[in-house]
Amino acid sequence: MTHNSLTVGSHAIVIGGSMAGLLTARVLADTFEQVTIIERDRFPTQDPAPRKGIPQATQLHILLTRGRQIMEEFFPGLEAELIEAGAVVIDMGGDVEWLNPFGWAARFPFGFQAFSFSRCILDWLIYQRVSKLDNIGIIESSHVTGLQTNADQTAVTGVFVRQRGDDSQPLQPQELTADLVVDTSGYSSQAPKWLQAIGYDAPEETTISTSMGYASRLYEIPPNFSENWKGVYIQAAPPQRTEMGVLYPIENNRWIVGVCATAPHRPSKHEADFLEALKNLPSPHIYNAVKNAQPVTDISIYAPPGNRLRHYERLSRQPQGFIALGDSVCSFTPIYGQGMTVAALGAVLLQQRLQDTDLAQLPHRFQKELAQVNTTPWIAATSQDAKYPSVQGLTQPPSAIAKAIGWYMDRLIQLTTKEPQVTLTLFQVFHMLEPSSILFHPSIVWRVIQQLLVRSPQPKLMPVE
User: Fold this and answer.
1) What is the pLDDT of residue 171?
2) Which of 2, 18, 286, 310 has the fewest CB atoms within 10 Å of its CB?
3) SS3 for 119?
């Protein structure tokens, strides 16, 4: 099955079979005669399964609603396939107990649905769709070692690829030519070094980290479980409390349970420590649910590097024929659940620019506009991370405006304990369905003012139940 509608080139190469890479390949298949994905890892052959190339695959994943919508547009019927594979549909207002720094958010069913499933199912379903497109080829167990250029190095014309061989007989790099090379190889991208090797500057980088650690485990949902909720989210409250806990149902009648904390108290993979971390959360909801439940996996640990933004848009010179998107450009602390959706938004932007931009002009225009796409989620993640005592990478204290916005956001979250409409509006912004400007609508601002006029005492963190 081919989706070509407007051919702009004969061959495009996608470096990395990440979620960003698979979505990018789907977009390129509409406008290039042939698309090749180069992936270090190997994809599962028969059933969904974690793989080395996605080290965070065993941790809890949240696909924001905007990301799910985009994927459904790229792959019609994907949502139905997710449900058929066992994804649990959750009403975020009625099915989830959310403990934020000010108390329990008011629960009510308002039809804001989210899908809960393991990451490997989504990867599998999208890989299956992409691999069946007849103009997409996938080269596995291979990695790119550098960029090919034309004689005057003004354009990237392909890549050098090395396939995995044994140590005694290393394989020589192969040359693949292309009209466009897209780097979606993730946080560990070597593109800055490749650009320097062909005479260009590496992009500047901004890195902000809290040294957050994650531990996750799957449990069978007990047959006698009878609570009136499906999921629990116990939010961190930095700087006072940096631990958080999450329990969500996924396919096969299981819970995925996760705890997160910053250094020096990052979670342990030992069972006693894991249960103690759940027990020490400010609510016993999760601990009580799993203390007698049957675990079905070991405890999986993940220590991501944090937020990093590569400023390709600031480069004074860019070669033709090369762009980057996804985590190769902008990656986040995973607890905010933005990564896959931001990658999807980058793929949508590429789809739009391929329709109206000459390939020679594409890199400069695309990277400028991608930076704008990344700005809001970047600010959302890093402004929260700035509250953690362990944060590193901040070059200056928050501005007065940033402090004011932070104060206002706290007041909105406080309102979720009694104002369902505010909760719904926050969900719409968090899930990237509405711009953050909607949070300053007069009706929302008035609710904040009313709350202040009541002159209630400043909420304090305190044990719950």
Assistant:
1) 64
2) 2
3) helix
d(CA 338, CA 214): 16
- Contact present, 380 and 194 (Cβ < 8 Å): no
Copy the structure tokens of residue 294. 């049957």
Mean pLDDT across the chain: 92
Q: Are strands 212-220 and 88-91 parallel, antiparallel or unpaired?
A: unpaired
Average the pLDDT over each of 2-16, 103-117, 131-145, 390-404 and give the range with the smallest value: 2-16
Which CATH number is 257's domain given? 3.30.70.2450
Residue 168 has pLDDT above 70, yes or no: no
Q: What is the DSSP letter of 209?
A: B
148: left (phi over 0), alpha (psi -120 to 50) or beta: beta
Rounded mean pLDDT of 452-459?
64
Q: Give the residue from 122, 106, 128 showing the smallest Cα distance to 60.
A: 122
CATH code: domain of residue 196? 3.50.50.60
- Whole domain around residue 243: which residue ranges? 212-302
Assess if residue 63 is contained within a domain: no
